[in-house]
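U., I forgot to send this yesterday:
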Amino acid sequence: MATELRPGERLIPEDIHTAEDYIQLMRHYFVYDWLNKQIRRDDRIIDLGFGEGYGTRMLSEHCREVTGVDVIQKVVDYANEKYSTANCKYIIYDGKSLPFETNFLDVAVVFQVIEHIDDDNLFVAELQRVLKQGGKLFMTTPNRATRLKPGQKPFNRFHKREYYARELKELLKKHFAQVDMFGISATEEIHEIEFKRIKRGGLMSVALNMGLRKLLPESLDYRLSRFLQRRRGQKKGSVTEDIKQKYPMSDFRVETSEVDKSLDLFGLAVK
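Result:
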């Protein structure tokens, strides 16, 4: 099942083979761990676009109940089999209307999803609908300012767009009373590793601009990434204890001052 979940956008903890993979996993774990310190025991939470499912399960240990929601049935089935508990479940939705009553949820979690959405305005409006008055939306997305040149299209074939901090804040302010924008940053070494990974994505961007990308299978992105990693000496294998100790989750932080230099944007919106 893990390989079926691949293509490209879903990190699977058991399928981590390089330092670069491990850094990406810690980057995701960090945000969920940070959020666990913000939520309340009585909160009802939705984790929309939950990836592989591990983050939703992490949240379940600190709240009343959490529901992971995704548009792909096999992903929902996989997560339910692997992670579901009495207060943690995963359900399917149609990508338009969330299966919750108006003013029902305390917290909405949307990590690395908004960049995939065709109509981002309607998407945010639907999140606002299901949240209670005073409910909170936590949203992350890649920071365009540190990934793309002005006017450049996203090199990730799954991304409809990427945002500058001001753009994401303007979008959220259309629907929420209070919006604050933060960033997810890390050590200088991790930033450098990430920038090198992004640079490799430029090769895929060239293919996209030539109009070839849509003719190639989605699985080719992952294979090309692996090929380029091997060319750079990042061989596939088990992640060693040395790598785990070298890049702990504590290397990441929520940035409040230099958001435009962050790896990811982190929006907090209150209804």
